[in-house]
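WARN no homologs supplied; continuing
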Amino acid sequence: MSAEQKSLKQIINFRKEKLNDLQKKGVNPYPSNFTPTHFSESIKINFEKLQGEDVIVAGRIMAVRRMGKASFFRIIDNKGAIQVFIKKDDIGENSYENFKLFDIGDFVGVGGQVFKTKTGEISIRTSELTLLAKSIRPLPIVKEKDGIKYDSFSDKEQRYRNRHLDLLLNKKVKNTFIKRTKIIQCIRTFLDEHKFLEVETPVLQPIYGGANARPFITHHNTLDQKLYMRIADELYLKRLIIGGLDRVYEIGKDFRNEGMDRNHNPEFTMLEFYWAYADYEDCMKLVENLIRNIAKKIDALEVSFNNIEINLSKPFKKKTFSELLSNKLEVNVNDLSESKLKQICKEKEIQVKPDANIGQILDALMGELVEPTLTEPTFVIDYPKVISPLAKMHRSGDPKLVERFELFIGGDEFANSFSELNDPIDQRKRLEEQASFKKLGDEEAQNLDENFIQAMECGMPPTGGVGIGIDRLVMLLTESSSIKDVILFPALRSEVD
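OK structure emitted
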């Protein structure tokens, strides 16, 4: 056992002794409830009205300054922090002696009068003190002077593993997750106002589809059946469109058994919506308005993301896939063979598998050469058919293109949309082609879902569909650099003993 571990054990044992002492004195260290009348913030805002009045607050002790027969301590609640003055003559000798057994981290309830100290700090003069929860394990020590924190709880790995401490000790982190909730509320309000219906579809699916990704696999004991955790909501939501629900959306968890980096977590939150009688142009306008509406409501129209200043109030750009890639390569990509594209990848040191199909090659070139340069909000439109098996053929008649867009901001992808394919015969052919790719070793190729095809054979109206990664959108609007900063409990490797 290290010296640090011994010290921690000693502290815990000492606090347990205090707990026992309090219980022997008849103090219940874990009462069932407590009813505050005010938060710290409201007391400070309404000081002129509340000065001299009795209030009741509750919170966690974060600092203590003991001075014999009187002491100051600071508590934090859900709205902020406030100083508390406690004096033996005010609460009685027994209560004051009990207070000596309180520690930083303990939850307390405080009743008393609002006043201002000689130094001008708004405080509460205690008339009654109640222990609400005894803290056994000490909090990390954070020292602060003149608004500057010293020895703060800043190790990212430990922050992610101990999010309760991260929220407690880093105000910016708490504000990020409060803002995340507001962003999701804004999404729901916007789509509800546009007559979309929120629905729920299965997380456990007998056949996974709707995206190119590897799934997580599980087993249902009663059914004796292999099931997959969904990688996308798409195929089930389209069945609802077929069933006559013309505008539907779902905000929920998807799961992809893939690598982790600053933009990817195996469990993530997606928004998908489907709009009957609309196309990808209609969806483009709606997505731009949605993002701008959210940014305006949370005061984030101008943000710094990936060290880039981004203005979301300006109209988003629109460029075609082939235009962007051709300009980067200085040659028309539509004229290049698969072997020539592989040669370009080799020359530019872009890794592709030896058996990669032309779609995967184009996707790799786009991802390496073009996407990182799309810093201003940009819709990339009109993708190759070979990498878009669920999108409608382009109305121009070009057999190689489909009606699809992806939205890029700050070099990252934020949305994906199609004029959805609603020809069941064409859809079957494309999914059969995907199945052939899977047989050749492409683990991320899509499956042929016979139930989905049969539903589509009943007739599906022209439809526009969109997927937006909620986590990435929160990253953008909170100026966060990693997806782990916007997911309360991100996936992490197991700690080594």
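Residues 182 and 298 are 8 Å apart (CA to CA).
OK
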